[in-house]
Automatic annotation (TrEMBL):
Keywords: Cell membrane, Glycoprotein, Leucine-rich repeat, Membrane, Receptor, Repeat, Signal, Transmembrane, Transmembrane helix. GO terms for cellular component: plasma membrane. The lineage of its organism: Eukaryota, Viridiplantae, Streptophyta, Embryophyta, Tracheophyta. It comes from Rosa chinensis. This is Putative leucine-rich repeat-containing, plant-type, leucine-rich repeat domain, L. It is a single-pass type I membrane protein. Residues 1-28 form the signal peptide. It comes from the Eukaryota. Residues 54-91 form the Leucine-rich repeat-containing N-terminal plant-type domain. Residues 172-358 form the Disease resistance R13L4/SHOC-2-like LRR domain.
Amino acid sequence: MTCHKLAAASFQLLSLVSFLLFLNPDSSIFLEATTIFANSNTADDERSNAACIEEERKALLEFKRDLQDPLLALHYWVGKDCCNWHGIVCNNQTVPLPTSIGNLSNLHNLDLSSNSTSGPLPTSIGNLSNLQNLDLSSNSISGPLPTWIGSLSNLQNLYLSFNSIFGPLPTSIGSLSNLQNLYLFSYSISCPLPTSIGNLSNLQNLYLSSNSISGPLPTSIGNLSNLQSLYLSWNSISGPLPTSIGSLSNLQSLDLSSNSKMNGTIPESIGQLRELEHKYLDCCSWEVFISENHFQNTSRLHTFSLSSEASNSLVFNVSHVWIPIFNLKILYITDSKLMDTAFPMWLRSQKFLNILILQRLGISDIIPDWFWRFSPFLQYMSLSHNQLRGNLPKSVSSTLQNVSMKNNSLVGSLPLWPNVTQLSLASNRFSGPLPLNIGHEMSKLVFLDLSRNYFSGNIPRDWTG
Ligand SMILES: *[C@@H]1O[C@H](CO)[C@@H](O)[C@H](O)[C@H]1NC(C)=O
Ligand SMILES: *[C@@H]1O[C@H](CO)[C@@H](O)[C@H](O)[C@H]1NC(C)=O
Ligand SMILES: *[C@@H]1O[C@H](CO)[C@@H](O)[C@H](O)[C@H]1NC(C)=O
Ligand SMILES: *[C@@H]1O[C@H](CO)[C@@H](O)[C@H](O)[C@H]1NC(C)=O
Ligand SMILES: *[C@@H]1O[C@H](CO)[C@@H](O)[C@H](O)[C@H]1NC(C)=O
Ligand SMILES: *[C@@H]1O[C@H](CO)[C@@H](O)[C@H](O)[C@H]1NC(C)=O
Ligand SMILES: *[C@@H]1O[C@H](CO)[C@@H](O)[C@H](O)[C@H]1NC(C)=O
Ligand SMILES: *[C@@H]1O[C@H](CO)[C@@H](O)[C@H](O)[C@H]1NC(C)=O
Ligand SMILES: *[C@@H]1O[C@H](CO)[C@@H](O)[C@H](O)[C@H]1NC(C)=O
Ligand SMILES: *[C@@H]1O[C@H](CO)[C@@H](O)[C@H](O)[C@H]1NC(C)=O
Ligand SMILES: *[C@@H]1O[C@H](CO)[C@@H](O)[C@H](O)[C@H]1NC(C)=O
Ligand SMILES: *[C@@H]1O[C@H](CO)[C@@H](O)[C@H](O)[C@H]1NC(C)=O
C-alpha cells in the first residue's frame, strides 16, 4: 500500500505555512503538504513575478507523478512559473545547486552543508555514481527524498539533517549497500520505514529522530547487523518493538523515546544486546512486564531510561535480590509499577551511579541506611512520589547536590547536608523547628522546598538574608 500522507510537521522556519492541498472526504487517501521552497533566479522581490528554476519545476512535477495520486490532487501544479503554484514559496535569498553538478562523474565527496542551498534535490546528483559522501545538512532543501537516491550505489555517508525534506523514505534506499551513516533529522519524514531498510547491511548509524515516521518498525531492522546507533525518538511509530531487535549484536545506543503509540511487549531479546550502552525506552504505551531477562547480556549498559504513558501498565519485575550484570551511570524509571514494592536492593550494586531518578513507582518501604552512600558518584537523585517512610540521615555522600524526596511519608527533622544545592522535601511529614543555622550549614543551597510538612515555629530571620 502506498503511503500518501505527507505529514506536515512544524518546521523551524517561521515563514512556513502548512495547509491541506486537497481532501476527498470519501477517501482515506489525502495529501497534506507543507509549503515547499523553491528558488527564484530573479532578483525580483515580488513573489508572483519571480521565475522558477526549470530544474526545480521538473523535480516538483516528477514528485507529483511519483505520488500516483488517482485524484490528481495536485492538479493545481500547472504552468511555467512554479513560484505561483499552490504551496510553493520561491526564495531569492538562497542559492540552488547548479544542474551542472551532475557532470562531475568522478566526484567522491560532496559537502555543501550549511550552504543556504534550497529547493528540491537536483536530479543531476543521481548521476554521481562514484559519490561516497553526500552532506547537504542544514540547508533549505525541500520536497521528498527522490527514488533516484538508490542509484548512488557507492554512497557510504548520507547526511541530510535539518532541511525541509518530507514524505517517505523511498524503498530504493535499500539499494545503498555500502551505506554506513544515514542522518536525517528533519522533522518531516513520514510513513512507515520501508522493509528494504533491512538491506543496508553495512549501516552503522541510523539517525531518524524528530520526524513523523508512522506504522510499526519493520522486522527486517534486525538484519542491520552492523548497526551501532538507532535513534528513532520523537516520531509516531506504533505497534510493538520487533523481536528481531535482539539480532543487532553491535548495537550500542537505542533511543525510542517519545513514540507514544508504541505498545505491546518489549521483547526479552533486547537482553541479548551485549554492546548496548544506552537504552531509552521512555516513550511508549508499554503494557508489559520487564524482567531480569531483559538485561541478561547487557553488561555494558550505562544509561537506562524507562517509562510508560499508559498509566500503571508497565511492571518492572525483578527480584529483590537481583544482582544485575551492568553498572549504570544514569538510571531513570518513572510512571511504572514495581512488582516488588520493597526498596530495590539491586541498586546497591550500582556503584557508578551519577543520576538516579525513580519517580512514581509505588515503592513502599523504609529507605535503607546504605542508600545514602552506596555510590561515590551520585549527584542527582529523585525518589519523588513514592511511599517512602522513615528518617533522613544526618549526613550523606559528599557528592550529592540535587535531592528530591517530594511527596513521600518521611518523618523527622530537617537534615543539614552541607554540599547539597537543591533540596525538595515537600509533601512529607517532617516536623520540628526550622534550624537557625541553615544558611551557615548549607551555604551552597540555591533551592529549598519544604512546603506541606509539619515544621513548627517561625521562619528564622537570617534565612531571608
Ligand atoms: C529578494 O531580493 C530582494 C533584493 O535582491 C530583496 O529586497 C527581497 O527582500 C528578497 N525577497 C525575498 C522574499 O527574499
Ligand atoms: C554538462 O554536460 C552536458 C552534456 O552531458 C553539457 O551539455 C554541459 O555543457 C555540461 N556542463 C558543464 C558545466 O560542463
Ligand atoms: C557555499 O559553498 C561555497 C563553496 O564552498 C562557498 O563559496 C560559499 O561561501 C558557501 N555559501 C555559504 C552561504 O556558506
Ligand atoms: C543522468 O544524466 C542523464 C543525461 O546525461 C540524464 O538523462 C539522466 O536522467 C540522469 N540520471 C539521473 C539519475 O539523474
Ligand atoms: C533487498 O533485499 C532483498 C533480498 O535480498 C531483494 O530482493 C530486494 O530487491 C532488495 N531491495 C532493495 C531496494 O535493494
Ligand atoms: C534477514 O534477511 C534474510 C534474507 O536476506 C531473512 O531470511 C531473514 O529473516 C532476515 N532476518 C531478519 C531478522 O529480518
Ligand atoms: C496497540 O495499539 C493499537 C492501536 O491503538 C491497538 O489496536 C492494539 O491492540 C494495541 N496492542 C496492544 C498489544 O495493546
Ligand atoms: C547471554 O548470557 C547467557 C547466560 O549468561 C549466555 O548463555 C548467552 O550465551 C549470552 N548470549 C549472548 C548473545 O552473549
Ligand atoms: C516475575 O519474575 C519472576 C522471576 O523471573 C517470574 O517467575 C514471574 O513469573 C514473573 N511474574 C510475572 C507476572 O511476569
Ligand atoms: C503523590 O504521590 C502519589 C503516589 O504515591 C500520587 O498518586 C499523587 O498524585 C502524588 N501527589 C502529588 C501532589 O504529586
Ligand atoms: C563537601 O564537598 C567537598 C568537596 O567538594 C568535600 O571535601 C567535603 O568533605 C564535603 N563535605 C561533606 C560534609 O560531605
Ligand atoms: C535540581 O533540582 C531542581 C529543584 O528541584 C530541579 O528543578 C532541577 O531540574 C534539578 N537539576 C538537575 C540537573 O537535576
